[in-house]
Amino acid sequence: MQHKPNSLKQLALQKFKKNFWGVFSCFFLVFVGVIAVFAYVIAPDNTKHANQMHLSIHSKKPGFKVTMLSIPSGFNEKESVISNIFFGKKSTNTEVPISKYKIENNVLQYTEYASDGLEGVEKIVKLEVFPNNDVSKFIKEKRFLFGTDKYGRDLLSRVLVGARISFFIGFVAVLISLIIGVFMGSVAGYYGGKTDAVIMWLINVTWSIPTLLLVIAITLALGKGFWQVFIAVGLTMWVEVARVVRGQIISAKEMQYVTAAKALGYGNFRIITKHILPNIMAPVIVISAANFAAAILIESGLSFLGIGAQPPMASWGAMIKDHYNYIILGKPYLAIIPGLCIMSLVMAFMLIGNALRDALDVKT
């Protein structure tokens, strides 16, 4: 005899598993999340913000190769392994793209790389600069799989590190919006009356202000920066959550299980948190998935306008801003690659939202 699950959670999970695009998007987001957390481990340029600049090799095509000379600075700062994994290494050595080199009389003579058929500047450095006078470990061929940006930085590394901002802003913004939205919606829907009127007035005023304009105003008030953008986006996304929670609680508080809880003498806080909220979270989960996507787009727009994540921090929106002119200059990939990253991440969240809506059978 075949066992049929009778739990609503099990039924919803089974329905979600049958949705190919929902499951695919879920795995894709896990993949992007791993990249975002361990970006500096995966990226070819593991320096802080992947900000190693080489102006002589700027705007090179994907697959470009060059011989790279690393000249030790003699200054070695001790860094923890955890710091290197999550925040990148501090660049102390000087990297120089070279076209040729030779060793004579304990001196390394090299020619700096120059594009367009030009001859680079010849320079020398004493072998004693290198540990044990061994140069071989400091001269390597470096390949740029996505090419280089207009500052000569590795585009692949910038894209990988930039995933961290776009991915985590969704979590922070949605968390802030859930905390504020669930609280305001619960109070308005459960107590009603003047409390509901005041909160709905605040919701309507906030809703009437264009989202991007409100985010810009909050960002300017808090200052430009990494966490300021996260907070600003979160403070503008709670309105929709509050409206949905309010509507759900207005209908749920008339249900028999709420009446029974009141008859047993339970307090209002326990009734809301233990009885009502667990039964109305399905539409909130769906809205949260959509808010993830909206937060990524808002952050990208702010970075494009120059008031999001500040240089040299890697951000997909800032990368598009720096290179959108290259679309008509024959190197559109410099702007298209981060644009495709934004599009794929937003699409994944939207597909998961649709899959959750179908699985949970939300009709509100």
UniProtKB/TrEMBL annotation:
InterPro entries: BP-dependent_transpt_permease, MetI-like, MetI-like_sf, OppC_N
Alphabetical keyword list: Cell membrane, Membrane, Transmembrane, Transmembrane helix, Transport
Pfam families cross-referenced by the UniProt entry: BPD_transp_1, OppC_N
Annotated ABC transmembrane type-1 domain residues: 163-353
Superkingdom, taxonomy of origin: Bacteria
PROSITE patterns: ABC_TM1
Subcellular location: Cell membrane
GO BP annotations, alphabetical order: transmembrane transport
One Gene Ontology cellular component annotation held by this UniProt entry: plasma membrane
Keyword Membrane recorded: yes
Membrane-traversing stretches: 20-43, 165-191, 198-220, 226-245, 276-298, 333-356
CDD domains (alphabetical): TM_PBP2
Main subcellular location: membrane
Bilayer disposition of the protein: Multi-pass membrane protein
Family the entry assigns: Belongs to the binding-protein-dependent transport system permease family.
Name of the protein this chain belongs to: ABC transporter permease
Organism: Seonamhaeicola algicola
